[in-house]
């Protein structure tokens, strides 16, 4: 018995319906899809995996808050790191006294970056700078010779009473001793010497 035309059509329709998805997968590629035409609603939920995402293409903003774990806690910073402190002290020098001298130390945890000194009369008026004989850093010899303040001294036997003002400029910073490398002096280039006759 020969099948009727209706039955043949039904079988063809059933075959196309069963193979349509596989056939479409083989025939449709990225070239046939217009850019920006596929939206999120066109993609089935949970259908994409890590193999479908390019490595290194996701950024922090692509994740919800709390999805990316926080890194380890960093080291605690120092309050006011790098801030400069100006510390000043007055030292009274009597008339006709020996050389006046004074040291202004930096607060604990800070190190001197420089300083200044000057001389005033007992009323606070700056007087002749020639009375100031020298000024320099001071060092803590009990703690690896680290700088710890600023020192100055005046001339001796001046007949007028005066005040020595010593200022230290201190920084809230860490101290790293400088290593000075000694290099041997190079001998003169013998090729530059005149030839003997």
Write up this protein.
The protein has 1 helix and 6 strands. Helix content is 12%, strand content 27%. The chain is α+β, with helices and mostly antiparallel strands. The protein has a 3-stranded antiparallel sheet, with no helix packed on it. Strands 2-5-4 form a 3-stranded antiparallel sheet, with no helix packed on it. A hairpin with a 5-residue loop joins strand 4 (132-140) and strand 5 (146-154). The protein starts with a helix and ends in a 26-residue tail after the last strand. The chain has a domain at 84-171.
Give the overall pLDDT as a whole number.
77
Number of helical elements? 1
The biggest sheet, with number of strands, parallel, antiparallel or mixed sense and barrel status, is: 3 strands, antiparallel
End-to-end Cα distance? 129 Å
- Strand fraction equals 25-35%
Cα radius of gyration in angstroms: 43 Å
Determine the structural class based on helices, strands and strand pairing: alpha+beta
Helix content: 10-25%
The strand order across the widest sheet is: 1-6-3
Order of helices and strands: HEEEEEE
Uncertain residue segments: none
Oligomer: single chain
* Overall spatial form: rod-shaped
Number of strands: 6
Keywords:
197 residues, alpha+beta, 3-stranded antiparallel sheet, 1 helix
Architecture blueprint of SSEs:
Elements: H1 5-27, E1 84-93, E2 101-105, E3 111-120, E4 132-140, E5 146-154, E6 162-171
Antiparallel strand pairs: 1-6, 2-5, 3-6, 4-5
């Amino acid at each position: 018995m020969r099948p009727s035309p209706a039955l043949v059509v039904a079988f063809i329709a059933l075959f196309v319906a069963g193979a349509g998805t596989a056939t479409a997968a083989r025939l449709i590629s990225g070239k046939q899809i217009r850019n920006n035409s596929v939206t999120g609603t066109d993609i089935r939920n949970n259908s994409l995996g890590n193999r479908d995402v390019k490595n290194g293409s996701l950024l922090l903003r692509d994740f919800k808050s709390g999805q990316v774990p926080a890194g380890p806690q960093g080291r605690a910073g120092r309050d006011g790191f790098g801030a400069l402190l100006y510390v000043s002290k007055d030292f009274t020098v009597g008339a006709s006294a020996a050389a006046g001298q004074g040291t202004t130390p930096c607060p604990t945890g800070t190190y001197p970056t420089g300083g200044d000194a000057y001389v005033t009369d007992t009323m606070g008026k700056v007087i002749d700078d020639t009375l100031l004989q020298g000024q320099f850093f001071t060092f803590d010899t009990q703690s690896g010779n680290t700088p710890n303040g600023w020192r100055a001294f005046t001339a001796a036997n001046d007949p007028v009473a005066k005040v020595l003002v010593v200022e230290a400029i201190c920084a809230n910073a860490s101290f790293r001793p400088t290593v000075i490398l000694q290099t041997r002096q190079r001998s003169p280039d013998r090729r530059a010497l005149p030839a003997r006759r």
